[in-house]
Amino acid sequence: MVTPAIRVAPSAANRALNLLRTVQYTHPPNCPCHSNPNHHHHHKTPSMMNNVRRHLATPVDPSREKEYAFEMAASSIRFGPGSTKEVGMDFKNMGAKRVCIVTDSNVTKLDAMKQAVEGLTKEGIEFTIYDKTRTEPKDSSVKEAIDFAKPYKPDAFLAVGGGSVIDTAKLMNLYTAYPEADFLDFVNAPLGKGRPVDKPLLPLVAVPTTAGTGSETTGTAIFDLVSKKAKTGIAHRNLKPTLGICDPLNTRTMPSAVHAASGLDVLCHSLESWTAIPYNERTPRPTNPINRPAYQGANPISDIFSLHSLRSTVKYLPRAVRDPEDHEAQSQMLLAATLAGIGFGNAGVHLCHGMSYPISSQNPGYKHTGYAVDHPIIPHGVSVAVTAPAVFKFTAASNPDRHLAAAEAFGVDISNVKRESAGEVLGNAIAEFLAKLGDQPRGLKDLGFKASDIDGLVEGTLPQRRVLMLAPNLSEELQAEKGELRRLLEESLDY
């Protein structure tokens, strides 16, 4: 008969003894400290092999190191009907005494401006008004606005208007803070020097009167650099407004065509930021956090804002365009624009926006009937959306699941759709949405572009590195990239 073994729990002394034996009899291979040949106990002369191994080490290329972090930055936002009337108190709370109000010739007649002026007057705050902002700003109109602001020496800015007004106010604020800077110093590379904004700017309060750009929450300002025949801009977190006052009452005056064009910008902000490359696939990793770009790639926080905004836009934009008395839809579109601004303001946009800049700046003469301006204009949202069906067919292979989720937001039943069909399904869903919205150009041909204009549009897209670097599937080799952009623009001539 075999006596069963009895397991006795080891005492503390036994555990210590066993540990010492383990170290003694397995050292050096298993001891994590002492098995390291470079540990300070190993005083050996380096061998020839070690020297050779050291010299053959693969050098690290900083330009190929991938990002490992993302940052979230957005303006403070106040949302609610009637909130414009609080703006005078806001400036008083900030201690502002000399405010430069930025607007345009159309908005200056609206109730939003009336309330802003009354609010500042009631609080005894001195102000001046610049109302010559150009819709779709050019570098010349921006410089004119900067020249107005500098001698006034304000201690705060107030922007009342659409994205063009808010972007112009951001640039007035920037160059007032850097009075000796050359205009191209801060402009996005490679068209400018891409200098970071390394100090805080003056307080800027933005009161949007359109529901589109989300500029009230971003650190981005866009304009047309005429000499290069391309739109570009300046992007840095320090440009973002201190406060965005989103008052749905201010968007009720938008004509239906402006609702549509502005809403298409929201649509593409959402789609592009949702499908941009992941932040941790972006290169190069910044050597200093001040150089981390505002547009970083899709990340877990921006995803929440982008997808919610896409769903809201699909639901409410057709209603806002169709019925000028549908105040719920108008309010929800203003909220969607702001949410999309937070999403793309941190994740970024890509191909639709990259190609939209030369489309707008190389306008062959198209004048949108919904905009009361004295010059040809392709509204920003229109120039962005016109390539969207082709773009998302192209990008889908990068992440079919995300593209199918976007198609589902348009009401597509994706339960039996194959992943390799994601691009076709989403592209068709976007084209159908645009068609049902009504009065939208069905491609570049409806804007006046011809096949012979494609090369110029390609050349105008190439400098948009800030957004192209976030484009899924786009080749990094120049000639291949040109070919891909050319095919996308050719496919966008009509659909």
Automatic annotation (TrEMBL):
InterPro entries: ADH_Fe/GldA (IPR001670), ADH_Fe_C (IPR056798), Alcohol_dehydrogenase_Fe (IPR039697), HOT (IPR042157)
EC annotation from Swiss-Prot or TrEMBL: 1.1.99.24
Domain Fe-containing alcohol dehydrogenase-like C-terminal: from-to ranges: 297-466
Reaction equations catalysed: 4-hydroxybutanoate + 2-oxoglutarate = (R)-2-hydroxyglutarate + succinate semialdehyde; (S)-3-hydroxybutanoate + 2-oxoglutarate = (R)-2-hydroxyglutarate + acetoacetate
Domain annotation Alcohol dehydrogenase iron-type/glycerol dehydrogenase GldA: ranges: 75-248
Domain of life per record: Eukaryota
Keywords of this entry: Mitochondrion, Oxidoreductase, Transit peptide
Leader peptide range in chain numbering: none
Keyword Transit peptide part of the UniProt annotation: yes
Subcellular location: Mitochondrion
Single GO MF descriptor: alcohol dehydrogenase (NAD+) activity
Gene Ontology CC terms: mitochondrion
Family: Belongs to the iron-containing alcohol dehydrogenase family. Hydroxyacid-oxoacid transhydrogenase subfamily.
Protein name: hydroxyacid-oxoacid transhydrogenase
Gene source species: Penicillium citrinum
Lineage, opening ranks: Eukaryota, Fungi, Dikarya, Ascomycota, Pezizomycotina
